[in-house]
Fold each of these.
Amino acid sequence: MEDLLARMRLLTTTSAVLLWLSLAASADAETLVGVAAPLSGPSAILGKQVESGAALAAETNGLAIKTADDACTADGGAAAAKEFVDAKVDVVVGFLCTEAIEAALPILKDANIPVITVGVRTESLTDRRAKTGWPVYRLGPRGDDERNAVAAELTRLWRDDLFAIIDDGTIYGREMAETFRAAVEQAALKPVFTDTFRPQLDNQIGLVGRLKKAGATKVFAGGDGDDIAIMGRDAAQLDAGITFAGGENLRTPPGDVPYAVGTLMIATPEWSEVADPKVVQAFGAKNIVPDGYTLPAYAAVEIAKMALAGAESSSQPLGQALTGHDFATAIGTIRFDDKGDLSQNPFRVFRFDGTHFVPLEGK
């Protein structure tokens, strides 16, 4: 009799475990993540990065995905959003273009479907949240993050140095320089030299000579990588002892003139260099190079799963589960603020070591 009761208890316990596993598997199977990416047109190569990153993350995490081509257009974004609503997705990741996501968000808002964008930098997307109510979260930098990082990091690094601020006269270069100028003025600092230089010259000997005469040992140049490389070469020829710094466009290798050793770059990390090695290896096993938006898309799907689980366990809306919580992802810990932006500016300072840019440690 006791043996019979023991077997019955074992069967009951086993049945309960199997039922729990069945329910858990069913919950994962019912989780559907929408993936919006430009899979046609000139941005298709970037869209494929989003698609491959999201696909591997879904496979790894036992999720289902619904992919739609937003074509980087307003019409494409609206059509993709309608596909997601019809498919009853729980959350959408992706979107690289402002036109597409701005057309999609009103439709997704009405269906109560949050969006984690991996590539749209337009500041108003999140700045207007109080007005639009759009449930959007930005897994990437804002449009002003680069210039704000330049201002904050170089003001801190060059506080005790004689520095100059120059730009090439373009909107990009001028905005970067002006933001830095405002930051140093607020910090009660003053550059020894400011100027607008003429870009795309074969040499910048005259400019470097003026910088040397002013006593500048550090120079921020709002311009492209070729100009900064030429300035570094000419400074070395004049033995000027000047270190140049620029923005993320230094990621693009310069032409015939290499960057000078010590050149500083303010940019986001190369995700493949800071990501979980096991995830990078998983992409390699599928012959996928995890560059561009591949790893951010992978992380976006990871965040979607964790947020959905958090919302379910706490019986709170998914938007609340996405806000103000740390998410451990393949590219590091991610946290969204109340507007849906990253809680920390992702730009960092890198130094050119003669071969490539490496993090400026200890600074």
Amino acid sequence: MDPSLLERLLDPSFYPVPTRKVEHLQTHISHLFLTHERAYKVKKEVNFGFLDYSTLEKRRAFAFKEVELNSRLSPHIYLGVWGLGRRGGEWEWMPPREPEVEEVAVEMVRLPQEGMLKEMVMEDRVPPNTMAKIARKVARFHEEALEDPNFTSLGTPQGFKKNTDENFHQTKEFVGITISPWDLEFIKDKTEEFYRRRGTLMEERAMQGLVKDCHGDLHSQHICLWEGRVYIYDCIEFNERFRYSDVASEVAFLTMDLEFLSVPHLAQEFLEHYLKERPDTTLREILPFYQCYRAFVRGKVESFLLKDPAIPKRKKLEALLRAHRYFFLARRYAEVMV
């Protein structure tokens, strides 16, 4: 990001909706600016292969896609796309397709931090029936989600193997840093064994219409309970290969995340309520495979932060420790997946 734009975005007086302060957060792919009432997301100029935000046109197109897709589960939260550009040498908010636009930002209603599921889990204040509400929302979403024959193959061993192979390849540079060489090889071997021995199960589920246009990034940081409603936000907009998946992969993500947060009873509660809402006779059989995959992805994503020059050293150390834990969890799932 242009340093002068970052400076303006850190200034509370710059925003179209009045605010007294601005909080700046970062992921490996985005800057997030939190004001009193709004959240503004600016995508980083990065290209990881599976994600390409390397040009303004791509970032703008994905910003519009983000608003469209997230409106499925969080209506009224995603407000639109702003352009950011200079007129007379000064940065301004403007329509996103103006010729002066140099960057774009997605504008959202700021959801309350105290309503975030992860926050509630870590503070041990998850209200009764919360997991039932979330399971009901996810199950109904999966029931109504689009099926597209063009993406059915993504649930088969041949289609899904691209994801796991990509994970293993992109993690090589972090061997000995965030993952041990023996754990990487063990997880790879067990994954290949699963494809050989249980690949028919994956194919059967794909043929049953269980590969759908899902959320793609369903974990506790993307779930908020506010004013009696469940909001699920920040879905994968940048790669259909990650968003279209067996619904079991989505269930696996949230259950894995809750186990990572040391609340396996909430993971089990979510799973039981999901299966009541949407019976699935083979989901439990395939769950450890997808849990391993999801834990590995999170370990990889945390590892990417170690290479980002914009991330402070303290945050990199925190990411390093989280990556270790995610890869350890992936190993545990690999031990029971076949």
Amino acid sequence: MIAAAAELAPPRGDLDVARSVLGTEAAGLTALAAALDGRFVRAVDLLAQASGRVVVSGMGKSGHVGRKIAATFASTGTPAFFVHPAEASHGDLGMIVPGDAVLALSNSGETAELADLVAHTRRFALPLVGITARGGSALAQAADVLLLLPDAAEACPMGLAPTTSTTMQMALGDALAVALLTRRGFSESDFRQFHPGGKLGARLKRVAELMHTGDAVPLGTPETPMDRALLLMTEKRFGCLGVIDAAGRLIGIITDGDLRRAMGPDLLSRHVGEVMTGSPRTIGPDALAAEALHAMTARERPITSLFVVDPAGRPAGILHLHDLLRAGLA
């Protein structure tokens, strides 16, 4: 068994290679951050001022990075799409129209397949932002704004496979996307419109979309007899009863734990006000579902039901942990 385990363990050299790759690429990102200057701001200006879409293009590995950048733009409030440069030369140039801005990626700046697309931007005076590592290249000369990648070693031991260079391209695309969304004041609510599915969409739902309202909410007053309170808790199936005052404000709660603590021969003859716990945890209807989950689970004593109150403290609904689970939040 010991010999078999040793055979399965990765050679130490693999870890050394991995750490070297990550260190080399991290150094490239550090150099990229240090090299940013006013040209980055001008690039953001051009992209933000486009009345149409941001068209991203690149060939090979730069193209794969470009697709991701376009997707990040589109999901964060900057309308964008990717055009393959070779397809652009065979009709897809018609997709790029006045009002659009173009972001072209090429590490060498001499990618032949980009030539027709670059010429198209010059012919129709479309803003062109170029990302390249060669300041004297054709792309660099044609671009309205050049974002020059610093001279950084590729992580490939032969110095040939795009590794550090594509990492820098990807990071620079993220920097542009985040700068644009920050300028536009892109909010969590805006973000949710583009991410309705999966756990992310669930986390960005509002409590009001998930809570139970109306007759489903278990409520009583301090004067409610405990035998009636038990019936209400059983009927509403939330394992609790909210207690409201004469103005309708939530002032307390009775939970299964409160019942156990108050258990005695006189329990059913008592009133809710004698058994309740005051100042229950609450949340507002406009809060995110993720905030509700945190309110239920983050403390020493987790809870399974959470009352939702309006600004005046009146119950607007109730949320159960199962509602969050069904929504895909956890």
